[in-house]
Amino acid sequence: MNDSRYDVAIIGAGMSGLAAGIRLAHFGKKVCIFERHNAPGGLNSFYSFAGRKYDVGLHAMTNYVPPGVKGTPLGKLLRQLRIDREEFALCPQKQSRIVFGPNSEISLRFTNDFAVLEAEIAAKFPSQIDNGRSLVQAVRAYDDVSFDAQPVSAREVVGRYLSDPLLTDMIFCPLMYYGNAQERDMEFGQFVIMFKALFLEGFARPFEGVRLILRVLLEKYRAAGGERRMKCGVAKIIEQEGRAARLILDNGDEITADQVISSVGFAETMRLCEPARVTEAEQNTGALSFIETITVLNRQPASLGWGDDTIVFFNDSTRFDYSRPVDQVDLRSGVICLPNNFEYDGDELPEGLFRVTCLANFDRWANRPEDIYQADKKRWFTEATRSARRFLPAVDEAALVAATITTDMFTPRTIRKYTGHLNGAIYGAPHKIRNGRTHLKNLYLCGTDQGFLGIVGAMLSGISMANFHVLQGSAK
After folding, report:
1. Is the dihedral angle over the CA atoms 271, 149, 144, 77 positive or is it negative?
2. Contacts from 347-350 at CB under 8 Å and sequence distance 24+?
3. Structural element, H or E, at residue 414
4. What is the pTM of this model?
5. For the packed helices 114-124 and 129-141, what is the interaxial angle rounded to 10 degrees?
6. Nearest to 177 by CA among 74, 61, 314, 29
7. Is 385 helix (H, G, I), strand (E, B) or coil?
């Protein structure tokens, strides 16, 4: 029989919620994670369709460093959650590229060795390299885990170092696509987190994808004694005397907890509160969402000439506009992911995968009649994959059709349905709450809206909020 009284209740079984739960359970806290859906992982999960399992969200795990490198986010994560590095079985990328221009006129190649990108910038932007190195020094020196740092425009800071707008946009493009909730600019602390995660550290992926990471986390949580209730979401957070007094579950049950940690987002959490904090939520609700196409192939992408690149960030002009599209989808830029192109130690994924991500407008997808919605998906699938293929070696259309086993696509409407994120906003609120505090003394945020980004960042957010608000507080 489930209990109704906990030391800590965690809302959401995403990466941050699971990490927070593991950390707290390790220290003897009676903790329960409440998840509305039947699969854990939140924005980094998986789903089954027509006999196949598809990763959601995981193009790559950022913050990769080789074994033996000390003082990195990945090392801290593994240590705090008592995970052996081998359990994640991370395989590094081959190489990735940032490509701008309608005919791929300018390209910057990068790997998990930052020297590669540095050499590319030196060769293609020679007038910028010295100031670029100074920018990297500033990034390395910046305290990106401070809870008290004041927000400042990344465009403004980077502009003090780089004077070429093309290079500036090429640097911003991957960082924005992989973790930015603001239109056209970033907060500099977020820029630093993503710059380190992508360029100074790098990309990796387990051979089994996100399912392996989730399996490890769930086993650690179970072994530590944590409780988890799936298909059992939190419907309301009842406020009393400035505290979260109790939680009302979707089935009407009530539970109480000394501390509550929410991983579902700032605006979403504010709307759960009773009374709801609607104005606060509306002032900090994310607006940036995406579509993603998935093409399953009966051969390795390398056999089509697509064997070199792991991830390609593309933009078809010399200026990059990262903003909510006017139309349903913005085809001018996007991300290509080829999950087969990691260094899998001689193994190969059983099927080829070709994924394309583009910015999308939630409102243009949200309320379409089902028949029109399905027609829109079919149309934009074709357009998005055609747009992305401009930035890969040419493949004969008939050959690609013959190699295609099946396809799928998710939209902002899918994201909203399965994650609860308002506007289908992948990266949540544009203004992060670095200390995780809310208007209630015992209600805290972890995850994307706390401000640590990426899969590793999300888990570190859960760990940090558990440490800072629960474990350190109980030790006083």
Report:
1. negative
2. 347/207, 348/300, 349/207, 349/300
3. helix 412-419
4. 0.96
5. 150
6. 314
7. helix
Specify burial of residue 213 (Cβ count, 10 A radius: 0-12, 13-18, 19+): buried
Helix/strand/coil (H/E/C) assignment for every residue in 329-362: ECCCEEEEECCCCECCCCCCCCCEEEEEEEEECH
DSSP secondary structure, 64-129, as one string: ---TT--SSHHHHHHHHHT--HHHH-EEEBS-EEEEESTT--EEEEE-SSHHHHHHHHHHH-GGGH
Query: What span, in angstroms and rounded, lies between the C-alpha atoms of 138 and 134?
Result: 6
DSSP 149: P
How far is the C-alpha of 476 from the C-alpha of 472, rounded, in Å?
Answer: 7
Show the tokens assigned to 40: 């854990």
Nearest partner of 17 among 421, 426, 420, 446, judged by Cα: 446
> Cα(315)–Cα(163) distance, rounded to whole angstroms?
20
19's CB contacts (< 8 A; 6+ apart) are 77, 81, 217, 458, 459, 460, 461, 462, 463, 466
- Tokens coding 149: 């740092």
Other Cβ atoms within 10 Å of 177 Cβ, number: 27
Q: What is the pLDDT of residue 144?
A: 86
The maximal CA–CA distance of the chain, rounded, in angstroms, is 68
DSSP state for residue 301 in the 8-state scheme? G
CB 335 within 8 A of CB 58: no
CA gap 282, 267 in Å, rounded? 7
What is the rounded distance in angstroms from the CA atom of residue 189 to the CA atom of residue 148? 11
Bridge partners for 273 per DSSP: 237
Mean pLDDT per segment of 10 residues, for the chain of length 476 residues? 85 97 98 94 83 82 93 95 97 98 95 98 98 97 87 97 98 97 96 97 95 96 97 96 97 97 97 95 96 97 97 95 97 98 94 97 96 97 97 95 96 92 94 96 96 93 97 69
